[in-house]
Design brief:
This protein has about 180 residues and is mainly alpha-helical. The chain has seven helices and no strands. The longest helix has 29 residues.
Length: about 180
């Protein structure tokens, strides 16, 4: 037997904050190039989500988007955006996971080094550039981890190996795609 009662429905409501934000971005885009800011925001969000496991346990692994984003932003938008990407992706993830450590600030210098190296070797293909800069930046971070932060040999190996492997996967699989969509 079919019921004659009306189905419950939810009235469609528009959140005025999102409309205002959309209009603000649209108006701002007339005056400045908004695409670097959009990709910078995207990389900050994806890095924070990726590192959210560190909110619950602190394992010596380093799968991060900071190196990847610093290199891509440098290649596509210039050194300033590359440095901003390297610093902000790590800083925003620290705020998101609510875990601020002094060694994270030293790690940010590695991402700045990656941006500088990407700017120096800018003429290379983005995949080759990413692989070279990842190796060089991790060499720098090896010395930072060993002599400044005083990590154990296991931690140094674990952080370095996971970072290199993860960034190699990112550059081999996704860097050309991102360069094409980064207007």
């Amino acid at each position: 037997m079919a019921s004659t009662a009306r189905l419950d429905y939810k009235k469609f409501e528009i959140n005025k904050k999102w409309v205002f934000l959309g209009l603000l971005v649209w108006i701002t885009s007339f005056f400045i190039d908004i695409w670097p800011i959009i990709f910078l925001t995207f990389f900050c969000i994806i890095n924070s989500v990726m590192l959210s496991f560190k909110r619950y346990f602190d394992a010596p692994v380093d799968p991060e988007f900071s190196t990847f984003s610093a290199i891509l932003m440098t290649v596509q938008y210039g050194l300033i955006y590359g440095i901003l990407a390297g610093i902000l992706t790590k800083f925003v993830s620290m705020m998101y996971i609510k875990n601020i450590k002094v060694n994270y600030f030293f790690m940010m210098t590695g991402y700045v080094v990656a941006a500088f190296l990407a700017n120096i070797f800018r003429g290379y293909n983005v995949v080759v550039l990413g692989l070279i800069v990842t190796l060089l930046a991790n060499t720098y971070l090896f010395f930072v981890r060993k002599f400044i932060v005083n990590y154990s040999a296991f931690e140094i190996f674990s952080y370095t190996a996971t970072n290199i492997i993860f960034n190699f996967v990112l550059f081999l699989g996704f860097s050309e795609f991102f360069i094409k969509i980064m207007i």
